[in-house]
Amino acid sequence: MRENILKAIRLLLTGQFRRVWNEVHVRMYRAIWAGLWYAIMPLRRAGRPRPSGAFSRQTKYPVAFASPDHIAPKGTAVNNSTNKKFILFMDDKLRREFGPQTLRMMDLGCAGGQTVADFMTLGWQGVGLEGSDFSLKHRRANWARLADTHLFTCDITRPYQVKLDGQPVKFHLITAWEVMEHIATPDLPQVFGNIRDHLEPGGYFIASTTETSDLHEGLELHQTRWTNQEWRAFVAAHFPDLEFVDVGLKIYQFVRYNFLHPSFLLYRRQRME
Known about the structure:
This protein is 37% helix and 21% strand. With 273 residues, the chain is of the alpha/beta class. The strands form 3 sheets. It has a 7-stranded mixed sheet. It has a 3-stranded antiparallel sheet with strand order 1-5-6, with no helix packed on it. It has a two-stranded antiparallel sheet with strand order 9-10. It is globular and about 55 Å long.
C-alpha cells in the first residue's frame, strides 16, 4: 500500500494525471466485481456437475532451470492475479459456444494460481503450469492445496503433455498473463505449438504481453519485447490455424495488462470442417 501511494505521488508530480486515474479506476472496478462475484458465482455454479478425473503433466523438463525467472524469481514469487469480471465473462461466453459440458482451462505462467482456482470455483476443470518451482517449494497461495493435482511446474518452452485420467486432454481456454515476453524468441515456435496442440477446436488462447524491459537482480526478464503487430505477424506466419478474434473485453477487464503499451493476443483455434 505504501509503495503504491508513493508511486501515485511520483506520477502526479510528473503530470501523469491520466495514468493515476486509470490505476485508481481499475482498483475500484476490480473491487466492485470482487464483491459481485460472491452474488453471481453461486448462481452460476448451481446445477453444474462436480468435475471428476485426475490431471497429470508429462514432461522431461519439469522446471525451466535456464529461465531468468527461475534464476531470479520475481513475478512467480509474488503474483496471484485474477479478474473476476474476466472469469465470469469467459464462463458465460464459452458456455454459450460449447454448451453445458464441463469446460476446461489452462493458465501458463500461473504464479500463485488464483485464475485457475476461480475457474474451478465455477465448476471448470483447471490446470496451471509454472516454469519456476518457487511457489511449489514455498507452498504459497493456491499451491498449498492444488500442487500436483491442478498446479504443476513445467518448462513450457519444451515438449509436454497434460493428461486427464491418463489420456491427452485439450482445453477450451488457455491463458498467459504477461508471460510470452519472458520467453526467448527462438523458443516461441515450441511454446505456440504446445498451446495449439492443447486447444480444443474452437477453443481460445488469450494472453497479455508488454514490450517494456524488466531488469531484476541484473537479469533481463523480458527476452522478447515485441509490439502487438510483431506478435500477430509471428502467429499468422507460423500458426495459421489460430485465427485472431475480438472477444469484446476492455483493457482493464483482462487479468493483467500494461496501460502504457496495451497488447493482447486473442486467438481461437479453427474448427475442423
